[in-house]
Amino acid sequence: MLFGVGFTLMTLPAYGQNRDQKIDRMAVQIEEMKTEMTLLQRQIQTMQDTLNKTTGEMTSLVNQMSDNISAVRRAQSSVSTNSQDASSQLTSMGERLSATDRRMEKLSEQFAQLKKLIEDIPKQPVLGQITPGNPEQLFAAAYADYTRGNYDLALSEFRQYVETYPGSELSDNAQYWIGEILHAQRKFAESVNEFEKVMTVNPKGDKAPAALYKRGLVLLEMGNRQTAIEQLVAVVKNYPRTPEASLATQKLQEVAPDALEASTAETPKKSESQPPRTNPRTKKP
């Protein structure tokens, strides 16, 4: 009985640590979801406006296609009905078949037009026109394009933001998403370099620990294990009270428990680059 109680008490700290790590991961996900919800609302409205503009053209194409399909069916029905008297209807049948071929060609063209029209809708910018001098609008457009998978457009917009508003509160955020986009495009080496620039843009910004953590993960994917471990250890040591520190701890437990044990044995020091605490309701992506 005493052995069972002792074992239970020993497992409680590990259980609590896992619970805290899960809570930290959930906190990061919730913040990202809040931002995405806001931007998705803008995106839906913009897509609705775009659809309204194209509905007339699509409706016209569909109606024409429907008329041609009906004509083709009538022609086929007529040919079938008169097939028994083929000798007397040969000339008329040839004309009907020619007309049917023309309608089928037209129908194929209309299908191609409709397909292209539908395919082009998601590729249009979320904001048809970005007001010059409006950093919030530019950032929102870039992030929305990223969430929709328009990576090249989003990359261009985020780069424009960093270049145009280098001292903005969101400049480090924009730089971080440049790294994320390049990682999504599997340009790992470029992604690592862009994540490193986040600390240059704003070493005290709230994206510094996230960029350092993500840089470590990308380095692991590239097979650069030693440098990756150093990055993850740096997250734990320099940003001990952040969700990224908990995630880095969990990753180190998987890939390098010895390095984690060595880092925790040292006396933790408060980093000057500790990101400011932000209000979760106003935190940007």
- Pairing-aware structural class of the strands and helices? mainly alpha
Largest sheet: none
H/E topology pattern: HHHHHHHHHH
State which percent range the strand residues make up.
under 5%
Q: Round the Cα radius of gyration to an integer and report it.
A: 30 Å
- Helical percent range? over 70%
Average pLDDT level = 74
Count of distinct strands: 0
Features:
2 domains, single chain, elongated, 10 helices, 285 residues, mainly alpha, Serine Threonine Protein Phosphatase 5, Tetratricopeptide repeat
Describe the structure.
There is one protein chain. With 285 residues, this protein is mostly helical. It has 2 domains: 23-120; 135-265, Tetratricopeptide repeat domain (Serine Threonine Protein Phosphatase 5, Tetratricopeptide repeat, Alpha Horseshoe), CATH 1.25.40. It is 78% helix and 0% strand. The protein has helices spanning 2-81, 86-120, 135-147, 151-164, 171-184, 188-201, 208-222, 225-238, 243-255, 257-265. Helix 7 (208-222) packs antiparallel against helix 8 (225-238) and helix 8 runs antiparallel to helix 9 (243-255). It is elongated and about 100 Å long. The two termini are 51 Å apart. The model is unreliable at 121-127, 267-273 and 276-282 (pLDDT under 50).
